[in-house]
Design a protein that fits this description.
By secondary structure, the chain is mainly beta. The chain binds zinc ion.
Length: 85
């Protein structure tokens, strides 16, 4: 399983998902849909507008099958029940 950084996500641009850092998604793709690169659930980017270090990927609905959420992860990766396609 590929290592996925907490600092990246996927954004939908012209109907195609692209990998982007949280900072890019936040600044250049403000209105685009964003999803978790691991479970593909919808995410929001929390943090301040300025300073990349404080941005944080947050799932819109928490999900125990996502390895990026170590506090709720139950050990087996499962796609988000409301994964974005
Ligand atoms: Zn996830």
């Amino acid at each position: 399983m590929p290592v996925v950084s907490q600092q990246s996500c996927e954004v939908k641009v012209d109907g195609v998902w692209h990998a982007a850092t949280l900072a890019e998604a936040r600044s250049r793709h403000t209105m685009a849909q964003k999803r978790c690169p691991a479970c593909q659930g919808q995410i929001i980017i929390a943090g301040t507008y300025f300073g990349e270090g404080t941005l944080k990927l947050q799932h819109r609905r928490s999900h125990t099958g996502c390895p990026l959420k170590s506090d709720t992860y139950n050990g087996s990766p499962v796609p988000h029940p409301q994964a974005l396609a």
